[in-house]
Amino acid sequence: MSKGQLVVISGPSGCGKDTIISKVLEKMKNEAFLSISMTTRAMRPGDTDGVDYYFVDVKQFEKNIADDKMLEYAKYGANYYGTPLEPVEKMLEDGKTVILNIEVQGGANIRRLIPEAVEIFVLPPSLEVLEKRLRSRGTDSEESILTRLEIAKNEIKVASEYDYIVVNDELEKAVEDIMSIIRANQLCTNKMKNLICEVICNA
Amino acid sequence: MSKGQLVVISGPSGCGKDTIISKVLEKMKNEAFLSISMTTRAMRPGDTDGVDYYFVDVKQFEKNIADDKMLEYAKYGANYYGTPLEPVEKMLEDGKTVILNIEVQGGANIRRLIPEAVEIFVLPPSLEVLEKRLRSRGTDSEESILTRLEIAKNEIKVASEYDYIVVNDELEKAVEDIMSIIRANQLCTNKMKNLICEVICNA
Question: What's the structural domain count of chain B?
Answer without folding.
Answer: 1
